[in-house]
Amino acid sequence: MSLSPDVLVIxxxxxxxxxxxxxxxxxxxxxxxxxxxxxxxxxxxxxxLLHSGARYAEADPDGAAECLEENRILRRIAGAxxxxxxxxxxxxxxxxxxxxxxxxxxxxxxGIPAERMDPDVAxxxxxxxxxxxxxxxxxxxxxxxxxxxxxxxxxxxxEHGADVHxxxxxxSVTVEGGSITAVDVGGEVDGTIRPEYVVNAAGAWxxxxxxxxxxxxxxxxxxxxxxxxxxxxxxxxxxxxxDPDDGDIVVPHDSEAVLGTTSVPVNDPDDxxxxxxxxxxxxxxxxxxxxxxADAPVVREWWGVRxxxxxxxxERGGRGISRGFFRLDHAPDGVDxxxxxxxxxxxxxxxxxxxxxxxxxDRLGVDAECRTAERTLPAAADPDRLDEAVAAFDGQGPTDAxxxxxxx
Length: 408
Ligand SMILES: Cc1cc2nc3c(=O)[nH]c(=O)nc-3n(C[C@H](O)[C@H](O)[C@H](O)COP(=O)(O)OP(=O)(O)OC[C@H]3O[C@@H](n4cnc5c(N)ncnc54)[C@H](O)[C@@H]3O)c2cc1C
Fold this sequence. Notes:
Distance between the termini: 28 Å
Bound molecules: flavin-adenine dinucleotide
Strand content: 15-25%
CATH superfamily of the largest domain: FAD/NAD(P)-binding domain
Structural class: alpha+beta
Radius of gyration: 21 Å
Helix content: 25-40%
Number of strands: 21
Oligomer: single chain
Largest sheet: 9 strands, mixed
CATH topology of the largest domain: FAD/NAD(P)-binding domain
CATH class of the largest domain: Alpha Beta
C-alpha cells in the first residue's frame, strides 16, 4: 500500500467510497479507510429510499432537483444496487388536501414526473392500501441497496488503483505549518500515512475526525429507527403526503416492507437512546397507509444517525429542513490541505463526491473531468459479484440484509 498517497479519504460510507472512486478515476493515487467495515456507519443503516425529490419538492426545490438528477444517474449506472419500484404519494382522509395540491404542483415545477391517479387505480397497484386513501400520485422513487452501492464504488476505486482498507481507524492527525502532514491509522493498517490532501467523509463522526486536526465541524446528528416486517410484493414506495413527520415512508423489498422513520437529536452518534415509542410510532403511522403491517411479523429493527451539519439545523430548524450537503474547505480555518463533506443523503452521494473531488483536484492542480455519472459501476449487472464484494469489504449493513447474499 502507498503510505504517501495523493489523497487520504477518511470514512468508507457512500460519500467516502464515492469520493475515492471519483478521485481514482481522475488519475489520483487514493487511500480509503474506515474504522469498521465499509458501510458500517449511516449508509448501511438508512431507510434505503432512492429519492425522486418529491419529498422535498415544496420546501427545498433545489435539493429536490438534485435528488431527481441523481436518481436518474443511479438508475443508469448502478444496476443491481438499486430497485426501480416507483413510488406513490398518498393522501388519507385525515390529511390536508391543500398540502397534497401544493406538493403535486411543486413536483411539476421541479420537473419530477408526477402522475395523479384515482385512489381505485392506486389500490390496483397496492391492493391493501388504506380504505380511506382519498388522493394519490405516482413519482419515480426507487429503492437503494447501500451495502452493494458502497461496495461497487469501492471496487471502482480499486480498479483505478486505490487502496481500500476497512477496519483502519484514523487515530491522530499531525498538523505542521498549516498543513496536515501525517495521519496515524490503527487497525489493519497500523501505520502512518502522509497524504498530500485529506478528505474527511466521516459522516456523523466528521466532528471527531476534524477535531484531531484542531478543526471545528459542528455536527448535530439525529437518530431514526427502521422496522422491517414480513410483507410480500408491496410494489412501489409509499409516502404519506403530509408535512414530514414520523413514520411517513414504507420502502418495498421482495418479501419485506421497511417502515420508518423518526428524527431525534443525539449528542453522541455511538451512544444514544433507542426509544420504544419510536418503533411503535413508525409501525402505527405506516399502518395508517398500509394496515396489514400493524400485525406483520417484525424481521429486524435498526437505527441510524443522520450526519446533519449543525449550522444548517439551527438556521432552518427541525424537520422539513433541507438535507442539502456541505463541502467545508478548511483552508480558511488554517489547514490548507483538508476538506470535510457532511450532510446530504444517500441518494446524492455521487454529487457530494463530485463536488469534493472538484475541490481536491483544483487544490492539487489536477486538470481532469468527473466521469462518475457516465461510467457504469463495476459488477452493476452481476448481483453475485456485488455481494462477494460486500463480503470482501465486510460491508453488510442491516438496510439490505435480506437482499444481499453473502456466504456466511
Ligand atoms: C434513519 C435514517 C434514514 C435515512 N434514510 C435515507 C433514505 O431513505 N434515502 C437517502 O437518500 N438517505 C437517507 N438517509 C441519509 C443517508 O443515509 C446519509 O446521509 C448517508 O448515508 C451518509 O453517508 P456518509 O458516507 O456521508 O456517512 P456514513 O455512511 O456514516 O460514513 C461515514 C463513515 O466514517 C467512518 N468513520 C468514522 N470515524 C472514523 C475514523 N476515525 N476513521 C475512519 N473512519 C471513520 C464510519 O465508520 C462510517 O462508515 C437516512 C439517514 C438516517 C439516519
